[in-house]
Design goal:
Elements (H helix, E strand, L loop, with lengths): L18 H7 L2 H22 L7 H7 L3 H14 L29 H5 L6 E12 L7 E12 L3 E7 L4 E11 L2 E5 L2 E5 L4 E10 L5 E10 L6 E8 L5 E8 L20 E8 L4 E4 L3 E6 L5 E5 L12 E4 L3 E4 L2 E4 L9 H18 L10 E6 L6 E2 L4 E5 L12 H17 L7 E2 L6 H18 L9 H12 L16 H5 L5 H17 L1 H14 L4 E2 L1 H11 L12 H9 L5 E7 L4 E8 L15 E3 L1 E3 L11 E3 L3 E5 L8 E3 L8 E4 L1 H14 L5 H16 L5 H8 L8 H18 L5 H17 L14 H16 L3 H15 L10 H11 L4 H12 L3 H11 L5 H10 L11 H10 L4 H22 L1 H13 L4 H14 L5 H16 L4 H12 L6
Parallel strand pairs: 1-11, 17-18, 18-20, 21-22, 23-30
Antiparallel strand pairs: 1-2, 2-8, 3-7, 4-5, 4-8, 6-7, 9-10, 11-14, 12-15, 13-14, 16-17, 19-20, 23-24, 24-28, 25-27, 26-29
Helix pairs in contact: 6-7, 6-8, 7-8, 8-11, 9-11, 9-16, 11-12, 12-13, 13-14, 16-17, 16-18, 18-20, 19-20, 21-22, 22-24, 23-24, 24-26, 25-27, 26-27, 27-28, 27-29, 28-30
């Protein structure tokens, strides 16, 4: 699943029952019935021993004294037996070879175990029957589920997940020696833990067939979760209804009773009854469709492979599709023409993954569908054979969509298609190992498109899109390890879907790939999948596959095994900074400690097994020395690099860590960048900018050194280094706005972008970039900076380009539309341009274009236009049919300028109750915090304080405290060490002639 990006933290409590105690307590109903039978048995024996009634009952009991302890022992053993839990640190090996997966051998916290299923029972196969009247908008549906169970120890208690369902009936079918027996079971519902707890009359014996049938009625949800109701307006304005699913992580239980944990894999046979005006699709193809007596249709679907229940998916809609080969793309009728790019990209990416992995997708599934849903909150989902996407993440409209849309669609398809193997064929056995799913998918977001479209250089986006952003967030004190659990509740699991599970895991796996080489990596992927096919995985299984393909970790340094290496990255929070200090006497001193974004700590206990490469000045890039290792806190090693030549570590940012050097080496690197930056690899140039600036921000490096290094980009024509510089420049611009040094900052930025901007065409595709993907990225970035710094030619070009479109002369090219619309709107006099873009928004049915137009409208600096735009988010004189997400986009869009921030303050002061009720309190809190982040002066602080007074009844004290703390830091920044050093640099800066 794409992170939406996703989620936050809430730690689970502790001090609850142990796993064994939970298992004993949850069988207490069964024990009660056993005791009743025991009493009955005593009376039965008494009668048998004393048929004429001459012996007192007490004497009969005494005769049974020897037998009773044995009976009681049998009862306790039967009811309290627990699965084997082996708390082996970091390495899990199966001690037996059962037909289904063993549970994780690592002991879970007691609170988490309370919400987990017992392991003595496993699902084998589901038959799910559903009936819906969704065509009318009716949310009520009914169903029956048959769950074929594997009983793995004697028991009388069966646990099944259920949330918000009404159970109408049940039937239990057990078979002994070929004879089936049916009974209706007594059950209780534990709503807190979302369990149905069924109790059988007799003890269930392992090895015999057992079937639990449950009839139920449910209400389709309205929040794109579980089995949910969705709708759209057709071209005539009529509302059309559809039903779709989103079960990850634990929402299958909200659709039908099931054993809702990823470890509990089974096969699924699905039958859906619906109105004939609609069609049903699911993970597998439909093999039959039959009319019912009431005029409805029943669709029957092929049985799925063995898979986790959260991957089950189905949809009932009137969506048409386009297809080629085994792939289809579904969308609402008016958007079907916008699905062609997704189909073409899906075909190419699946072919690339088939070849790369070496295990064809068709060996598991017969088809692969993609669906563009009108509302899908999480973004996208990898259901096996049926991938779901939010419309704007899948649809591409020629002549309207931009290169950014093309990139996003391509990478998101690659993410979900990678999951078809890594996530679906093999699945994380519990959500604490989510990174084993999402890390691989994040890595292949860029790797698979690069295989499918090598000319686009998607590989060069990975560091700036994935590695560098997560290095920033993962440097917090509050970050978590990759392997981690906050509990088994819905919110606790949802909080694990964060950038650690996605971006950090993808970055660490990329480091593993670079370390063992691409050919060995492909062997590893195949072994990882084949060895656990249709089963689940934990980090121990990844370790086993890496050992298998690398000769038991032969690449590792002496004394370090694979488990130690992998665990140092998966089980520790944060990441290290590798300090490389040259003695200039034939030695290097390398050391490590954890990198924090707010302090330097040299006594942290964490130690990583760090692989690193070294590149010397004038050495060929393809002749890197073998990987070297730092596995202790610090080491002194020999170095043959001449003292007057620079040394570069972690070449191309292959490792997941930062690198710092002694100042002399930094100065030699800066000199090389200023003299001829092409002598340093492009990815390393980007890395140097990012590392230097973040090291300077925590006082590990002089800020002047970092700013001097960034200044080389005035001669840079590659996008990735510029994007790294963009992050630093944006931060400094936000901090300096409103200060006396802001003019100096503008002059500095003008100098940096000047030469590159001169070679660009703001309103067209620059010939120097030849229309390449990275060239388009660079064009938009530089053009945005030029207009933001109020370079006259940029403002004139954008104004004239927008005026040509408004007057019907020439439509702005999609790839430059965001810059042209935004800055052209700011400089075009009169309301015509604003009204034109707003009318275009109203007329558009294409979500990506609507988002772009909302952002553009938020760029206006006219107070009346800003006020009118903000009112549309809650309903004003200007009306538009927004989605809930778009209402929030509108309010966020104005934050691009100080004029917009002021307008948002005015708007919230008057309309905050409506914002909280329509968008939710959380959105209101987020907007206030965004305003605080953009508050730099005492005058702006007073405006915010006035707003806080108006909002005081609606804001929690913690939010208000965080807002005031943010503003205090902003106002204090100019006199902080960082602020003073930046000011000193800007006042002294003199560009070196190029």
């Amino acid at each position: 699943m794409i992170h939406s990006f996703f989620a936050n933290e809430s730690d689970s409590g502790t001090g609850h029952d142990s796993a064994a105690a939970v298992m004993m307590r949850t069988d207490e109903e069964s024990n009660f019935l056993r005791i009743v039978k025991l009493v009955q048995y005593i009376f039965f024996v008494h009668v048998c021993l004393n048929p004429r009634g001459g012996m007192p009952l007490l004497q009969s009991v005494m005769l049974l004294a020897v037998v009773l302890p044995l009976l009681c022992l049998s009862l306790v053993t039967s009811s309290s037996a627990t699965p084997d839990h082996h708390p082996l640190r970091g390495r899990w090996r199966e001690l037996t070879n059962p037909p289904v997966d063993q549970p994780t051998k690592r002991v879970s916290p007691a609170e988490e175990q309370r919400y987990r299923l017992p392991r003595y029972i496993e699902p084998i196969h589901y038959v799910l029957n559903l009936e819906t009247q969704v065509h009318t908008g009716n949310r009520t549906y009914s169903g029956q589920v048959d769950i074929h169970l594997d009983i793995r120890q004697p028991t009388r208690t069966i646990y099944v997940h259920s949330r918000g369902l009404s159970i109408t009936w049940n039937e239990f079918v057990k078979t002994y020696y070929g004879v089936s027996y049916n009974e209706t079971l007594i059950f209780t519902e534990d709503t807190e833990r979302q369990f149905l707890i069924f109790v059988t009359r007799e003890t269930l014996i392992p090895g015999q067939p057992h079937l639990l049938r449950i009839g139920f009625v449910g209400q389709m949800r309205t929040n794109a979760e579980g089995f949910y109701l969705s709708s759209y307006l057709d071209e005539t304005g009529n509302r059309k209804y559809l039903a779709a699913t989103q079960f990850q992580a634990i929402s299958a239980r909200a659709a039908f009773p099931c054993l809702d944990e990823p470890l509990m894999k089974a096969t699924f046979a699905l039958r859906i009854k619906h109105h004939p005006s609609l069609k049903a699709i699911a993970n597998t193809p439909s093999y039959a469709s039959a009319g019912d007596e009431d005029g409805y249709v029943i669709d029957y679907f092929e049985t799925t492979p063995r898979m986790s229940v959260y991957l089950l998916a189905f949809m009932v809609s009137d969506f048409p599709y386009i297809e080629e080969g085994q792939q289809r793309v579904y969308a609402r009728p008016s958007s079907l023409n916008n699905t062609k790019f997704a189909l073409e990209a899906g075909l190419r990416i699946l072919d690339a993954l088939d070849e790369h992995i070496g295990i064809p997708y068709s060996s598991y599934m017969l088809k692969l569908d993609q669906v563009a849903l009108p509302d899908f909150e999480i973004g996208s989902m990898e259901n096996w054979g049926l991938c779901n996407y939010r419309e704007e993440y899948l649809l591409y409209q020629p002549g309207v969509s931009t290169y950014l849309t093309e990139t996003f669609i391509t990478t998101i398809i690659a993410h979900e298609y990678t999951h078809q193997w890594l996530g679906n064929v093999v699945t994380n056995e519990w959500w604490s190992y989510l990174w084993l799913n999402e890390g691989f998918a994040t890595l292949y977001e860029y790797m698979a498109p690069d295989l499918a479209y090598p000319e686009r250089r998607y590989r060069d986006l990975f560091n700036v899109d994935i590695v560098q952003p997560v290095l920033l967030s993962d440097s917090s004190e509050n970050t978590r390890p990759m392997t981690f659990s906050r509990g088994a509740t819905f919110d606790a699991i949802l909080s694990i879907f964060d950038n650690v599970a996605y971006s950090k895991a993808g970055s660490v796996l990329r480091m593993f790939r670079e370390l063992i080489g691409i050919d060995t990596w492909r062997e590893f992927i195949r072994d990882h999948i084949r060895s656990r096919e249709f089963r689940s995985v934990n980090p121990g299984h990844l370790i086993e596959s890496m050992e298998s393909v690398t000769g038991n970790g032969s690449f590792l340094p002496d004394g370090i095994d694979m488990e130690t290496f992998v665990s140092s990255w998966a089980d520790q929070a944060g990441y290290p900074v590798l300090e490389v200090r040259r003695t200039y006497a034939g030695q290097l001193i390398v050391s490590q400690d954890r990198f924090y974004n707010n302090k330097i700590v040299n006594d942290d206990a964490s130690i990583w097994m760090i692989p690193y490469t070294l590149l010397e000045q004038d050495a060929p890039w393809d002749a890197l020395a073998d990987w070297q290792w730092l596995t202790v806190r610090a080491a002194r090693i020999p170095s043959a690099t001449p003292d007057d030549r620079w040394l570069l570590a972690n070449v191309n940012q292959s490792g997941y860590y930062r690198v710092n050097y002694d100042e002399r080496n930094w100065q030699m690197l800066i000199g090389a960048l200023l003299d001829d930056h092409s002598t340093i690899p492009m990815a390393s140039r980007s890395q140097l900018i990012d590392d230097a600036f973040q090291l300077a921000r925590v006082n590990r490096l002089d800020m002047e050194v970092a700013l001097e290094l960034i200044s080389y980009v005035r001669a840079e024509w590659e996008y990735p280094p510029w994007e790294s510089a963009n992050q630093a420049l944006s931060y400094l611009g936000q901090r300096l706005r409103g200060s006396p040094d802001y003019v100096l900052y503008q002059l500095w930025v003008d100098t940096l972008i000047g030469d590159v901007f001169t070679g660009l065409d703001v309103a067209g595709v620059p010939p120097e970039c030849d229309g390449s993907l990275l060239g388009k990225y660079l064009q938009q970035l530089i053009s945005s900076w030029a207009c933001r710094m109020e370079i006259e030619s940029c403002l004139v070009d954008t104004r004239e380009a927008l005026e040509r479109e408004v007057t019907g002369i020439e439509v702005v090219h999609p790839d430059v539309s965001s810059v042209v619309y935004c800055y052209g709107l700011r400089t075009t006099p009169g309301p015509d341009a604003f009204q034109y873009l707003y009318s275009k928004l109203q007329a558009s049915d294409y979500r990506r274009e609507r988002s772009l137009l909302i952002d553009a409208l938020g760029c206006t600096n006219d107070p009346e236009e800003l006020d009118a735009l903000l009112l549309t988010a809650i309903g004003g004189s200007l009306q538009v049919n927004y989605t809930p997400q778009e209402r929030y986009y509108v309010l966020n869009s104005v934050l691009v300028s100080r004029d917009g921030v002021d307008a948002l303050i005015r708007f919230l002061a008057e309309n905050h109750p409506y914002v909280a009720s329509i968008l939710g309190p959380g959105r209101l809190y987020s907007l206030v915090q965004s305003i605080a982040a953009r508050t730099n002066t005492p005058e702006e602080e007073q405006m915010l304080n006035d707003l806080l007074e108006r909002l005081e009844p609606d804001l929690p004290a913690t939010v208000t405290a965080n807002v005031r703390a943010t503003v205090s830091r902003n106002l204090a920044w100019p006199t902080s060490r960082e602020g003073v050093l930046v000011s000193y640099f800007l006042q002294r800066y003199r560009p070196i002639p190029v």
